[in-house]
User: Which sequence fits this backbone?
């Protein structure tokens, strides 16, 4: 993996810098031994930093282009209100999705700073067509992990956008992402509709795979009507006793069989799963958040479980 290669190079850079510091203490800086070793280590350091920069420039970038068009959008010119609404709406949806992935699902309140940091997108380019902006993720943060939060967030966001023509798919996607995401998504679409613009997104992910999405104005009324029929019925915290039958660190998921034989599966924080993996197969008490979403037009209901804690019964 490129992330493993990056971490290996980063570790070697730190080791080389430490060695340079050590030889400065061990030898006189005027000695031949010091000059030879120092030259060798500095050449190695320079080469490692060059390799690191190549990796940073070439891999694990997340890039999104937003192309805004409409009667009131001139070539290379756009109202600041329209631009702010489109950018802020897009960022708010991404932040809400990330919060649902790595934090406890919440419908309101402040999103933690560590979540916002991982979904921060920087504006790196403005271009015509009719008016376009290019956003990039924080490359350094993404290179340090195998599955960057921003990558998973944009995967979920594009899945949500791509489901617009299928009411059942919209329901499935939004149920997983929580009411905060639903509210920001509706606000964003309403702003697009009210300002009379069309938005096209083009994404190039960290593996150089390309995705695109475009919402046409004539499709917005039916989509907004579908979203208005989705209701976050209730959220409650429960404690349930049973046996853990599955823990997946990479996907941050769990599976659990209650004493009533009901099978419950859902998501949980990495730290909770990591710290309790030794309890796999054991009878435990789970602290859970249960979220129920309903489609008012069809009566369909979906339950999402989030793991808060695992308590050993021993």
Assistant:
């Amino acid at each position: 993996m490129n992330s493993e290669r990056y971490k290996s190079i980063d570790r070697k850079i730190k080791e080389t810098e430490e060695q340079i510091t050590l030889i400065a203490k061990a030898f006189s800086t005027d000695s031949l031994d010091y000059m030879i070793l120092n030259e060798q280590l500095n050449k190695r350091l320079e080469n490692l930093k060059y390799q690191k920069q190549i990796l940073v420039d070439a891999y694990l970038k997340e890039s999104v282009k937003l192309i805004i068009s409409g009667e009131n959008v001139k070539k290379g010119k756009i109202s600041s209100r329209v631009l702010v609404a489109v950018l802020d709406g897009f960022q708010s949806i991404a932040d809400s999705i990330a919060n649902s992935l790595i934090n406890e699902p919440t419908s309101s309140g402040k999103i933690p700073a560590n979540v916002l940091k991982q979904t921060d997108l920087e504006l790196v380019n403005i271009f015509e067509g009719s008016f376009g902006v290019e956003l990039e993720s924080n490359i350094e943060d993404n290179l340090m992990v195998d599955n960057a939060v921003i990558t998973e967030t944009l995967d979920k966001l594009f899945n949500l956008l791509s489901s617009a023509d299928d009411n059942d798919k919209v329901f499935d996607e939004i149920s997983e992402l929580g009411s905060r995401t639903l509210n920001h998504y509706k606000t964003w679409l309403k702003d697009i509709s009210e300002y009379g613009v069309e938005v096209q997104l083009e994404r190039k992910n960290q593996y150089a795979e390309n995705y695109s999405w475009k919402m046409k104005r004539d499709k917005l009324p039916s989509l907004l009507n579908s979203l208005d029929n989705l209701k976050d019925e209730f959220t409650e915290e429960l404690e349930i006793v049973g046996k853990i039958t599955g823990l997946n660190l990479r996907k941050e998921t769990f599976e659990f069989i209650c004493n009533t034989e009901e099978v419950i599966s859902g998501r949980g924080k990495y730290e909770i799963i990591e710290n309790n993996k030794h309890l796999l197969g054991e009878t435990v008490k789970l602290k859970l958040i249960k979220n129920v979403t309903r489609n008012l037009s069809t009566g369909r209901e979906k339950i999402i479980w989030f793991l808060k804690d695992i308590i050993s019964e021993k």
Observations:
- The first strand starts at residue 63 and ends at 70.
